[in-house]
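User: Hey, my collaborator sent me this sequence without any context and asked if I could get a structure. I don't really work with proteins. Can you help?
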Amino acid sequence: MLFYNVLFLFFLVFSFVTVITRKSNHRFEVLSILVLAFFVAFRDRVGADWSNYVEYYQSGYAPDKLSGNYEPVFMVLRDICYYLHFDYELFFYIISIFTLLCIRYSGRVLNVDNFTLVLFVYICMFFCNFQFNIVRSGAMASCMWVAFSQAAIGRQRCAFIWTLIAAGFHIIAILFIPIVYLIERPYKQKFVFILIALSYTILIFKLGHQLISHVPMLATFDRLDGYIDKDVDGNGITLGSRIQYYHRFHNLAIFFYMYMKYKKEYYVNRKFRVIVNVLFWGVVICSSLNAFSTIATRAGHVLNMSLIFVWPIILGRLNKKSIRGALYLVLCVYWFMYLNKSVNVEDIFGQSSLVPYQIEIKS
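Assistant: No problem. I've predicted the 3D structure and written it out in structure-token form, which is a compact way to encode the shape of the chain:
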């Protein structure tokens, strides 16, 4: 855990400075991206999918035959790097930088200026999964946020193109096509309450699992069977994913705070509305699609990334430095707990694929 603790403390200090002073250092932001990408690229046997991606880069074939071939953009990028005789570390480095730059660009378009804090929240809540494990999903998620940001400024054609690019990294991005066209609309309070109540009814009463049991054909389509949860506890929550269950209620509370507290701005400010609406759909999809646990998790991770923009907005709107600093430190406790949980997720052998962090630099 030493690597992750040092990383956390480093960004905690620099993010605290930006929260208090409300000033960002763009050189530090760029340097942070380069350094983080370095640690992603030169890790050695860190991450559940590390060996699979290394084997794929070297052979050109997906090791997991059950998942089929990888998506086209990811494959083309691999082929280009391989043709240029790049080592797999450089391939990882390029993907990581691309992923982080997409996040930075999205934040700027959405008028979230404190990228140091954005990056800090991303590290605590999404970095381990999107950079060390599900790499294709991480690239897809960043591309989707570029698509969301384009929708926020009325560029629907660009948003659609970026959604297709995202699908080129992971096919699940196709699910976001309707959402790209829905997130710019202002939602009435009645619609919000009805949809959230319906999604939580599906979650609590396990209606999704009942649907699958009555329509087994849903489990026969290509690649879908692997995304269905077959082993849930008495509450209908995936075993080993209980943290996602509690995280749903946290996100629900944050959504209602943003929606109700800044209701006038929600109807006037299109960029603000897009961020809030993405969080809203994250709450709805994670609850209503709980039966398809991996789909809910993958899609939920993309939509819940709105938190990396929401928290800088909330902290930035507090006028008193003392209140901003106090709330920031309280949040740091929560973020540290979330990071610690993410790092120490155990596999079937009772071990974490992220600990210890190891690095290898070839001579």
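In plain terms: The chain is about 70% helix and 0% strand. You can pass these tokens on to your collaborator as they are.
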